[in-house]
């Protein structure tokens, strides 16, 4: 049964996230370059959040450019991993906090840029409302998604239509599709 297999992989992922986050960080297939983000908006001197931060790939990618980066992550093992990595790398502008996309522990209008990387969609409508709550007017929400090129993207219709109106950039290779959804919150 396909649903049983999916549930088993979710459980396996949670075990890896909590017990061996360094393996998740090393093996995760999701790779983004800073230019794929900064081509949408500058990060220089900005207050940024990487929500659903995982092992912090996006957090540490944007940290050299941003004034402050909040790495929001619900899994304790991944939060510990990011904190230890920030200390090892002497990254002083990264702050790791417990939270989820539908309950971001930051004040209203506090972010210049909010980024997710394959983290959005568990509770999409509530997540989008929360993203708009914490992002300043004139700020950007950016959602980085990568999938198997043969998979349909069930979120596209919701993100690209009213009331959300995200724009997108899609790049496909033989086996992967990378999508950057982005929105300037006015």
Give the helix level as a range of percent.
25-40%
Gyration radius (Cα, Å) is: 16 Å
Order of helices and strands: HHHEHEHEEHEHEE
Report the strand count. Answer: 7
The secondary structure category is alpha/beta
The N- to C-terminal Cα distance equals 45 Å
Main β sheet profile:
7 strands, mixed
Counting DSSP H or I runs of 4 or more residues, the number of helices is 7
Which overall shape is indicated by the principal axes computed on the Cα atoms?
globular
What topology, given as strand order, has the largest sheet?
3-2-1-4-5-7-6
Question: What integer is the average pLDDT?
Answer: 86
Range of strand content: 25-35%
The unreliable regions are: none
Gist of the model:
This protein has 186 residues and is of the alpha/beta class.
